[in-house]
Design a protein that fits this description.
Shape of chain B: globular
Low-confidence stretches of chain A: 1-26
Oligomer: heterodimer
Largest sheet of chain B: 2 strands, antiparallel
Number of helices of chain A: 12
Shape of chain A: globular
CATH class of the largest domain in chain A: Alpha Beta
Number of helices of chain B: 14
Structural class of chain A: alpha/beta
Strand content of chain A: 15-25%
Number of strands of chain A: 14
Mean pLDDT of chain B: 90
Radius of gyration of chain B: 22 Å
CATH architecture of chain B: Orthogonal Bundle
CATH class of chain B: Mainly Alpha
Low-confidence stretches of chain B: none
Strand content of chain B: under 5%
Strand order of the largest sheet of chain A: 2-1-3-4-5-11
Strand order of the largest sheet of chain B: 1-2
């Protein structure tokens, strides 16, 4: 079933439910709804969440109905969109950006029978709110290793979105694991203050390239940084972010972090359908399949590729943690002692750079 | 060869009727677009214009939301319309809206956690002041150095956005927010909140202020000497000068009033529906209000209805997106068509299309 048919089916289903019959009907068919911060066509973050939504449809066929809305601003509008979704008979609503946190909880208070699932947040103020996230810093460690090995200028770059722990965690993991294999490496960070804005993302990539950076990682949602790197005739490489971004495989993309939400979405919707659903706070990584490392291309020498894959497997097996001491904070104070591993609490509240990173976190 | 020829006396009927024609043309062209996208155009148009008002399932919620969404648009558009009538082009209401919100939040949070009935009125004044001061920059630059207020006010929007990001990450950041950007949630602090006044109506102080602005705007233009001067300056600048209207004073007044109203809109938004200063607090009300002002014929009552119509396309557009799976870009294109057809029908009200070369006079 292609996407258009699928949507037409969803629309038809809704058409039938007009006139107040929605609540009666909603028990026969589970309705899963998704709120996206960007357009599905971003090729990154939102695209992957939508793949997860399509997987739910695939898994349960006629028993579920999917509805979604793109480009929902993280503010007052989100609350209205969520309320309208709940009113339209959604049984479970996935809000797929950090900025929906307060709105998700506010609307959840008004609709106790609807389940809310908030991605990357930490507030679960009502029993019907669950949160889920993925350990992206594990993927960042693999990228850091590749960056440290591949850079010729010893300057690597990071396009950061917002100075929240999630992003700072990624920067630190990327830097630590690059430095481990290449002590001379320097990291430049550009803050874009957006999740999705191809023009700003391209500008940020340009600024990094102008500084002599030759490996770029990004924490924003579009393919613009890769498109910018592609203009350098192979001098600069980068990574697919959130999605594989395979269309740049022949160009600058040497690997990627793929957010695979499908197993989680299928599991949660399935649990709701068979009555085993419970409030949860999920944070899986490479081991759980939520974070995948996209194919490492031939531009990376075989021994580096093998090293990166070994790191990935070690993280998955639990024998290596990207944040293993000794690690000092940027200001020189001690954070982790020799052999000590960062606690989840430390990671989720991370508000500092590790030693060696130059610059300040925007205040 | 097509060319435009100015009509000697534009039809009074079409001057009033062109917004209605523009809405109908938008429905037709938008319907064709939805049809090309594989949707039922009638269902799409019904979802956008009818369901938010009359659908059993949604209307009780979305009807009040119409007021919430329309209030800032109306408040800003009323201020802009005064300037637009006088030929003072304030394009930067978005920036004034942001500064109003920042000033108001800063004033409120400075005294946190004082619980006093006086906090909210002080925040109202601070909000209006923030917008007013931000609008004074282009006003003074224009009157003293003759800079172009269109450019200055527009560019100051981007300055304001950066100040907003700075505030959300720095001075106004919630110290109990775990390091995340954004201020405390003002709508959850009783002394600062701008709540729904009557449950289930969507009516908050910003809606009240918008209605008051409509009435004040109407009286000003119909009954007050300043309204007369504004209209005169726009229609016949030289005559206005002979009549003793000071252009500099008018620039300051028009920008000042529109800035203060935009600041108020930001103030009511940040204490109510939005709740907090965040990096992406502004969602374009200041720019959309320009469309609302013209759609309402720069007339206060017209602006009231134009604001409600614009709010309807937003809320109905959201419904259409997830009910019918329309892409959000299609809804934005649909809203853009409204401005396009409005400008086109206005143009044809004032000009006629002639075929062939202009004859030598």
């Amino acid at each position: 079933m292609n996407r258009r048919n699928l949507l037409a089916t969803a629309a038809l289903g809704l058409g039938l439910s007009f006139g107040g019959a929605a609540f009666a009907e909603s028990h026969a068919k589970t309705k899963a709804c998704f709120v996206y911060v960007g357009p599905i066509g971003d090729g990154g973050w939102t695209y992957q969440h939508h793949q997860g939504a399509l997987a739910v449809q695939e898994a349960f066929g006629d028993k579920v109905e999917i509805a979604y809305q793109e480009n929902v601003p993280e503010g007052a509008d989100a609350e209205r969109v969520l309320t309208q979704m709940a009113l339209s008979g959604c049984n479970i609503i996935f809000t797929t950006s950090f900025g929906y946190m307060d709105q998700t909880n506010a609307v959840a208070a008004k609709f106790p029978d609807v389940k809310f699932e908030h991605a990357t947040g930490y507030k679960r103020e009502y029993p019907n709110v669950s949160t889920y996230n993925a350990r992206f810093y594990e993927g960042r460690a693999v990228q850091g290793l590749i960056a440290g090995r591949m850079t010729k200028s010893n300057k690597i770059g990071y396009i950061a979105s917002f100075p929240i722990p999630e992003v700072i965690m990624g920067i630190n993991s990327y830097y630590l694991n690059a430095k481990k294999v290449n002590p001379a490496v320097e990291l430049s960070i550009v803050w874009a203050f957006t999740w999705f804005d191809p023009a700003k993302e391209a500008d940020a990539a340009k600024a990094l390239i102008d500084q002599g950076v030759d490996v770029i990682a990004s924490h924003t949602d579009s393919t613009a940084p890769l498109a910018e790197a592609a203009k350098t005739d192979g001098a600069v490489i980068g990574f697919g972010q959130a999605s594989d971004m395979a269309e740049y495989k022949d160009g600058p993309r040497v690997s990627s972090i793929i957010d695979n939400w499908a197993p989680y979405y299928v599991k949660r919707v399935g649990a709701l359908m068979d009555g085993t659903y419970e409030q949860a706070d999920t944070w899986d990584g490479i081991a759980g399949g939520e974070v995948e490392i996209g194919e490492i291309t031939d531009r990376v020498p075989a021994e580096v590729k093998a090293e990166a894959e070994a790191l990935r497997d070690a993280i998955a097996a639990g024998t290596y943690h990207p944040f293993t001491g000794p690690i000092k904070k940027q200001d020189g104070s001690d954070w982790l002692a020799e052999g000590e591993v960062a606690s989840d609490g430390d990671l989720l509240g991370m508000g500092f750079y590790v030693e060696g990173i130059v610059g300040d976190i925007p205040k | 060869m097509l060319r435009l020829e100015k009509r000697p006396s534009p039809s009074a009927f079409w001057e009033k009727a062109s917004p209605f024609l523009a809405v109908i043309l938008t429905m037709i062209a938008g319907g064709i677009m939805f049809w090309i996208l594989g949707k039922n155009p009638f269902e799409a148009i019904r979802t956008i214009f009818w369901d938010p008002l009359f659908n059993d399932q949604f209307a009780s919620y979305s009807r009040p939301q119409l007021l919430v969404k329309a209030a800032p648009l109306i408040l800003i558009a009323i201020g802009l319309s005064l300037g637009f009538r006088a030929g003072v082009w304030n394009i930067g209401a978005e920036g004034q809206y942001i500064m109003g919100a920042i000033f108001c939040a800063a004033a409120g949070l400075a005294v946190y956690p004082v619980e006093s009935r006086l906090v909210f009125p002080v925040m109202i004044v601070a909000g209006a002041l923030g917008g007013f001061l931000w609008a004074m920059i282009p006003a003074i630059l224009k009157t003293v150095f003759r800079t172009n207020e269109i450019l200055v006010s527009l560019l100051l929007v981007y300055v304001a956005q950066n100040i907003l990001a700075m505030m959300a990450l720095g001075a106004l950041r919630n110290p109990e927010g775990g390091g995340f950007p954004g201020s405390r949630n003002l709508s959850q602090i009783p002394a600062m909140a701008n709540p729904e006044l009557i449950a289930g109506t969507g009516m908050h102080w910003g809606v009240v202020a918008a209605f008051m602005a409509v009435i004040a705007g109407y009286i000003l233009l119909q009954r007050h000497i300043l309204g007369f001067q504004i209209k005169l300056a726009g229609q016949a600048p030289r005559a206005a000068r002979f009549a003793g209207v000071s252009p500099a004073r008018l620039v300051i007044l028009c920008l000042g009033i529109s800035g203060a109203l935009a600041g108020l809109a930001g103030m009511f938004e940040v204490t109510g529906p939005a709740g907090q200063i965040s990096i992406d607090f502004n969602v374009g009300y200041g720019f959309t209000a320009i469309i609302v002002a013209f759609l309402g014929r720069l007339n206060p009552v017209g602006i009231l209805f134009a604001g409600l119509l614009m709010a309807l396309t937003y809320i109905g557009g959201e419904l259409a997106q997830f009910m019918l799976g329309l892409p959000s870009a299609a809804i934005q294109a649909f809203q853009g068509m409204l401005l396009f057809f409005l400008l086109a029908t206005d143009l044809l009200t004032n000009f006629r299309i002639r075929l062939g070369q202009r004859k030598a006079a």
